[in-house]
């Protein structure tokens, strides 16, 4: 099985939250990790049981607003839990077209939950793969209470999107 290393400069994480006042957009390009898989004719070979891990430093999550960034760091307890981690546990093919259902574990703020969602995988060339996916999460499942102050209320459902570009090692 080949190991593909995530390229942070070409990968990105977006989190879209809503509030009673305005949308909140969080981004990071500080993704790290690897994918262990075989790619045959542009598709993942599931006979080799693909695995993977991904991590992002909480400090790298930025909104562009100092006030919102401070609140995000406070809520996520950046000093106590400096990284968000994901582990791929199982991958199954969907109806062709390079789409897959991925089941794994997400660890956020000391809480680990099993989650699943759909991703699209494409081979960009013989050594590079790109994985795109999105998932809506309820932050309360990870022990977070969305902030409320004055007229601002942040809603608990957030949309998480990721584009992972990884290059084959060796």
Note the beta-strand portion. over 45%
Distance between the termini: 12 Å
Bin the helical content.
Answer: under 10%
DSSP helix count? 1
CATH superfamily: Lipid/polyisoprenoid-binding, YceI-like
According to CATH, what is the class? Answer: Mainly Beta
Structure overview:
The protein has an 8-stranded antiparallel barrel. Strands 5-6 form a two-stranded antiparallel sheet. It has one domain (2-168): Lipid/polyisoprenoid-binding, YceI-like (Lipocalin, Beta Barrel), CATH 2.40.128. The protein has 170 residues and is mainly beta. It is built from 1 helix and 14 strands. The model has no long low-confidence stretch (mean pLDDT 94). The protein has one helix at 66-76, and strands at 2-6, 12-18, 23-28, 31-37, 39-40, 43-44, 51-57, 83-93, 99-108, 111-125, 128-138, 148-149, 152-153, 157-168.
